[in-house]
Design brief:
alpha/beta; pyruvate-formate lyase- activating enzyme; 3 domains; 19 strands
Length: 443
C-alpha cells in the first residue's frame, strides 16, 4: 500500500485543508503515516502569506528534496498557498518537486497523486473550493479538539494582505453543513473543544444569506453539547454585533475569549491599511466587550512598521496597548508583499526600526501578561487536559478557556488519574510570564 505523509505549515485554516486532503487519500486506500520520512509520497501544505512563511515553506521543501535524494521518500507534492501564488515559477525552479496543487484544488489531491510521474500542476486561477460535511477529514490535531472552518476567502482587501489572491473571495459554508460536520466528527471522537476559524469569522454568512449569521451559528453549535468548549477565532473589529457579544456572554460553553486583531490604533495607519474601522470604534468595541463579559480574555494582533508609520503613530499604539492591557497579544513586523496594494507605498520603514519597535511591544506585553497571570494565583479554574508529561505520571499539561491551542499559554497540572480531554478544576499555585501551574482539586 502506498504510504502518504503530510507536513502542515501555517495557520489552523491550512491545517483543516491538510486534514481534508488526508481524509480524501485515506478513502482512496492510501496508508497515512505521521512521520513523512517513512512515506512514499510526502505532501507539504505550504503557507505564503509573508516573507517568513514563504522561507519556512521553501526550507521544508528542500528538506524533503534531501530525503528524496537519499531515496528515503519517492515523491514530493507542494500544496496550498505557495503553488497558488507562484505556480509556474515554482514548477520551473523546483524540478525535484513532483506535483503541485493550489488552495482551490485540494479536493483533487488524489488525481494529482495518481498522475505523479507526469509532474502535474493543478492551480485554479480563482480558488473556489470550500469543503463540506461530505468531505472526509483525518484529524491532525489531538483527537479531543478540532478546528471547524466555517468560511474560506475574504472580501475585506486590507492593503497589506495577499490572502484574497491566495484564497479567493468570501465563501461561507451553509449552517446545516457546519452542524452536520460537527455531528460526524463527534461520532468518532470525544471532542472537548471546537475552534471556529475562517478569514473573518464575524462576516460569516453575508455572501450566502445577505446578512451576518455568526451569532446564530455559534448558538446552535454551543447547544449541540453543553459540556464542550466553543472558541471563536479570527474576528474583525469592524464586523461585530451586539448579538454576537450577547451570545458569547450567555452561552455558558462559549469561551470568554476573543481573538480580535486590531493591527493598529493610529487612524492614519488604519486608513492606509484599509481596515475600514477607526480608533474610536475599536476603543468603544473593547469597552463594550469588557463591560458585557467581565472576565473576558482578549487576544489581539498588531502589525508593526506599516509604510509611513511615524514615531508618533507607534507611540499611540504602545500607549494603547499599555492602557488596554490585552490579556494576549501577538505582534508581527510588516512584510512588503508583491501583489498587495501597500507594496508600492512610499515611506517603507527600515527593517531595523521595525525590529526595535517589535521588541518594545513584546517587552511591554511580557509585563502585562505576567501581571494578568498573577491575578490567577490561589484561584480555582477549569482546565482542559491536553497532554500527559512523558516522565512524570502525575504531571499533565492543559489550558484554561482563556488560552487557544498552539498560540497561548499552558497550565502545568499536578494530579492523579487525569485523562487527556478531561475538564478538571485546578487551584493555581504558581504563575509564570505566559504559563500557569497548579494542583487538580475535587470540588
Ligand atoms: S481581514 Fe484583511 S488581513 Fe484578514 S484575511 Fe481579510 S484581507 Fe487579509
Amino acid at each position: 500500500m502506498t504510504k502518504v505523509g503530510i507536513i502542515s505549515l501555517g495557520c489552523p485554516r491550512n491545517l483543516v485543508d491538510s486534514e481534508v486532503m488526508m481524509g480524501l487519500l485515506k478513502d482512496k486506500g492510501y496508508q497515512l503515516v505521521d512521520d513523512v520520512t517513512t512515506s512514499d509520497i510526502a505532501i507539504v501544505n505550504t503557507c505564503a502569506f509573508i516573507e517568513d512563511a514563504k522561507a519556512e515553506s521553501i526550507e521544508t521543501i528542500f528538506d524533503l528534496v534531501g530525503l528524496k535524494a537519499k531515496k528515503k521518500i519517492k515523491y514530493i507534492v507542494a500544496a496550498g498557498c505557495l503553488p497558488q501564488r507562484y505556480k509556474d515559477k515554482l514548477k520551473s525552479e523546483l524540478k525535484e518537486v513532483d506535483g503541485f496543487v493550489g488552495t482551490g484544488d485540494i479536493d483533487k489531491i488524489d488525481k494529482i497523486i495518481s498522475k505523479i510521474s507526469k509532474r502535474p500542476l493543478l492551480v485554479s486561477k480563482d480558488p473556489a473550493f470550500i469543503y463540506s460535511h461530505t468531505h472526509p477529514r483525518d484529524l491532525i490535531t489531538p483527537a479531543h479538539y478540532a478546528y471547524i472552518k466555517i468560511q474560506e476567502g475574504c472580501d475585506n482587501r486590507c492593503s497589506y494582505c495577499v490572502i484574497p489572491q491566495l484564497r479567493g473571495g468570501l465563501r461561507s459554508r451553509p449552517i446545516e453543513s457546519v452542524l452536520k460536520e460537527i455531528k460526524n466528527l463527534s461520532r468518532n471522537n470525544d471532542i472537548s473543544e471546537l475552534n471556529i476559524v475562517g478569514q473573518d469569522t464575524t462576516f460569516y454568512g453575508y455572501d450566502l444569506y445577505g446578512k451576518k449569521r455568526l451569532a446564530e451559528l455559534l448558538r446552535r453549535i454551543a447547544r449541540m453539547n453543553k459540556r464542550r468548549w466553543i472558541r471563536l477565532l479570527y474576528t474583525h473589529p469592524a464586523h461585530y454585533s451586539a448579538e454576537l457579544i450577547k451570545t458569547i456572554r450567555d452561552e455558558e460553553n462559549i469561551c470568554n475569549y476573543l481573538d480580535l486583531p486590531i493591527q493598529h490604533i493610529s487612524d492614519r495607519v488604519l486608513k492606509a491599511m484599509n481596515r475600514k474601522t477607526h480608533s474610536s470604534s475599536i476603543k468603544s468595541l473593547i469597552e463594550k466587550i469588557r463591560k458585557d463579559i467581565p472576565d473576558v480574555a482578549i487576544r489581539t494582533t498588531v502589525l508593526i512598521g506599516f509604510p509611513g508609520e511615524t514615531d508618533s503613530d507607534f507611540r499611540k499604539l504602545l500607549d494603547f496597548i499599555e492602557e488596554t492591557r490585552f490579556e494576549r497579544l501577538g505582534a508581527f513586523t510588516y512584510s512588503n508583499e508583491e501583489g498587495s496594494r501597500s507594496f508600492s507605498y512610499k515611506n517603507q520603514i527600515p527593517e531595523r526600526t521595525k525590529k526595535e519597535r517589535l521588541d518594545e511591544v513584546m517587552k511591554l506585553q511580557r509585563r502585562i501578561s505576567e501581571g494578568y497571570n498573577r491575578s490567577f494565583l490561589n484561584k480555582t479554574v477549569d482546565v482542559l487536559i491536553d497532554e500527559k508529561d512523558a516522565k512524570d505520571e502525575n504531571l499533565f499539561i492543559g489550558r484554561t478557556q482563556f488560552d487557544a491551542p498552539s498560540v497561548d499559554g499552558q497550565v502545568f497540572v499536578k494530579g492523579e488519574n487525569l485523562k487527556i480531554s478531561d475538564f478538571v478544576k485546578v487551584k493555581i499555585t504558581d504563575t509564570l510570564e505566559y504559563d500557569l501551574a497548579g494542583q487538580a482539586v475535587s470540588l
